[in-house]
Design brief:
Length: about 425
């Protein structure tokens, strides 16, 4: 069963180590035909299908033909999917004509993932944007303290919470029964902003919170600082809120506020806080503080709880706080903004940002508030300070640091959160 291949069929010969042909080009062979190389003269021989051996037409050597696996039929082409590829794997080729295109699911971008910038590491990346928040229930706690009849009396704090109450009802759908209002002008002593009532109100705010709940906390009054005894503050001070009865009951320290109102928040719950007080930057002890933007325009979140001995975040929920100023600053209680009455400067700018149409995102909120505070036409007689009652109860009151004597308040509003997020996302209460 030896097949002799005529020498006229292939005109190959060996020249050195290269295979040369005296013809212009070797004859073509069918893709189904097998070829073998003669081990003696290195000639390439064509082998018909099923032949076990053949004789070389050049050197007459018998060449054994190795068996080969049967040719597998090629798989049919994979149908092109009309669903979009995962993010970062977008095909550069257009879809076939007539293919139905589906948009990506909510919250997922179909754009390619950005390449990391060489030499730049983002330490705290924003958490993925949650799906559109559907509010199931709303609750708000508003605390305004003017400290009537004391040496530290303020003029705009009760005005602040009443304006905030109107904003929540007119813009965000809160009802009277959803809002707990603690002010000292209420004839019912149970509704006075004492230390006990504030603690009770904080527990009421988060009690029974479940998925879809939107919670809101607003405080307008004095804020202070106390020496940190636990070693978890970067600046060595705990921030405090000053209740109406602080001389007898004491101050409300940020560690307790965090434990009572932040840590219990379960997944699906969103808490917004607005704290218009001196030294209020980290008064909720939230782990992350917004510190401007990096060179690429991304939010720069600083971990404020790096040395905390206790967990400062939530149980899965969201907590976001707008504060009147940095921990080392004081905030203004003034008539320079409202003109006709005294208000807290930060509360006024927060409400102004929403009513002026600048409340679409957290970024636009912060930009508007900073702009209004920096450009307010104040003077030495334009308003007092909501000063800080420091570690010894009496502290900074009517003087220093709350605003300049020419134009603009020096206080800089702060944004803190339990977990980093994209500040360009919609602002929703």
């Amino acid at each position: 069963h030896t097949v002799v291949v005529p020498s006229s069929q292939f005109h190959f010969h060996v020249s050195g180590s290269r295979l040369d042909s005296p013809l212009a080009s070797p004859p073509t062979m069918s893709s189904a035909q097998q070829t073998v190389t003669c081990p003696k003269c290195r000639s390439v021989l064509g082998c018909p299908p099923g032949v076990p051996a053949l004789t070389c037409a050049v050197c007459r050597n018998v060449v054994q033909v190795p068996s080969r696996a049967p040719i597998q039929p090629s798989a049919p082409p994979k149908p092109q999917s009309s669903y979009p590829p995962p993010p970062g794997t977008q095909s550069p080729y257009p879809p076939p004509p007539g293919a139905q295109q589906f948009p990506p699911p909510p919250g997922v971008s179909s754009a390619p993932a950005p390449h990391p910038v060489p030499g730049h590491a983002q330490q705290y990346a924003p958490s993925p944007e949650p799906p559109r928040f559907r509010v199931a229930r709303r609750k708000a706690m508003l605390v305004g303290i003017n400290y009537y009849g004391t040496s530290s009396e303020l003029g705009g704090c009760i005005n602040d919470v009443k304006c905030m109450q109107f904003l929540l009802k007119s813009k965000f759908g809160f009802r009277d029964q959803d809002i707990l209002l603690l002010t000292e002008d209420n004839p019912n002593p149970v509704m006075h902003p004492t230390l006990r009532n504030i603690r009770t109100g904080m527990r009421w705010l988060v009690d029974g919170a479940g998925e879809g709940d939107s919670l809101f906390f607003h405080y307008s009054g004095h804020g202070g600082r106390k020496r940190d005894r636990s070693g978890d503050e970067l600046d060595g001070f705990d921030e405090t809120l000053i209740p109406l009865d602080h001389k007898r009951a004491g101050q409300l320290v940020d560690d307790e506020i965090n434990e009572t109102m932040i840590r219990p928040l379960p997944p699906g719950v969103r808490l917004h806080a607005v704290v218009d007080a001196c030294h209020s930057g980290s008064v909720l002890d939230l782990p992350f503080m917004l510190k401007g933007h990096d060179m690429y325009g991304r939010a720069n979140w600083m971990n404020e709880a790096a040395f905390a001995r206790k967990f400062k975040g939530t149980a899965g929920g969201e907590a976001i706080c707008f504060s009147a100023c940095d921990d080392s600053q004081t905030s203004a209680d003034t008539s320079a903004l409202a003109k006709v009455t005294r208000t807290g400067a930060m509360t006024y700018c927060f409400i102004d940002a929403i009513e002026s149409g600048n409340g679409q995102t957290y970024e636009s909120m912060m930009q508007r508030m900073k702009y209004r505070l920096a450009t307010a036409p104040v003077s030495s007689g334009g308003g007092g300070l909501g000063g800080g009652l420091g570690g010894g109860v009496l502290g900074m009151l009517l003087g220093g640091g709350g605003y300049t004597h020419q134009q603009g308040f020096s206080q800089i509003p702060q944004l803190s959160t339990a977990q980093p997020f994209d500040i360009k996302r919609p602002f929703v209460i």
